[in-house]
Amino acid sequence: MSEPSPVRTEAPSSGAIDYVEHALLAARDLIESTVIRHRRELAQDSWAGTALGKVPLAEVVDTLVGCAERTVGVVLSGDEEQTRAVCAALARPVGRGRRAVVVRLLCEEPVLSSAAVRALARTDPRCEVRICDGGRPALPEALLIDGEVAYLRRGPSEPGRGPGQASLVEDPATVRALEMMFAGAWGNAVTLADHPRLGGRLCPESVRRILECLRTGHTDEVAARAMQVSLRTYRRYVAEIMREMGAHSRFQAGVRAVEMGLLPGRR
């Protein structure tokens, strides 16, 4: 009686393994997305019936940022409570499927003094920071999530004065309008790298550029456009430089700039 032939088992091809792995990863991402949406719905249910301004800001921001899957747009006005809450939420570790979330921080100039914001811009590749120039943005403090939800807040909570006004907007048309307003303000804002003020003072490169504009006789309008700041902001910077140098005229500021080695002397 002959021996039965051994059954041959072939190892799965690398293509089959890749397909299975891809399917499992896609399933995991779908589960994670479903869980995130469920958490947001539970949070919103728990907030229902309560004045949203009474819900701790950190709780609302953490929940909404943690549920973002595509985009996070933030308007930071300089309110310390809001800045701390946003930075803390964004600094938390994120899952694999959410590392591609695009984060845009639209800040007013006082926010530049926040080390947390600058640290996020420096260390988190998802984050881009821009500074509103020449006034306040059209939006109040705002958090825009995935083009689906907007959290708006007017005024911080203060002891003895009650909670700030806050609202959660989910109406598609309203959210879309808010997104368009944010996009317009974002397009007119200055990138953090190009903004003249660093750490509360004019950065050396901006000082040099302004002094060069003064020496070459550029009008304030032309110089402001070249530096991508408003005319009012540019003139404020000029006054700041003159004050720092103890100069009483723009010509005197130019002379002292050459003497101090900030500008090369003309040959």
Automatic annotation (TrEMBL):
<protein>
    <recommendedName>
        <fullName>HTH luxR-type domain-containing protein</fullName>
    </recommendedName>
</protein>
<dbReference type="InterPro" id="IPR016032">
    <property type="entry name" value="Sig_transdc_resp-reg_C-effctor"/>
</dbReference>
<dbReference type="InterPro" id="IPR000792">
    <property type="entry name" value="Tscrpt_reg_LuxR_C"/>
</dbReference>
<dbReference type="InterPro" id="IPR036388">
    <property type="entry name" value="WH-like_DNA-bd_sf"/>
</dbReference>
<feature type="domain" description="HTH luxR-type">
    <location>
        <begin position="208"/>
        <end position="257"/>
    </location>
</feature>
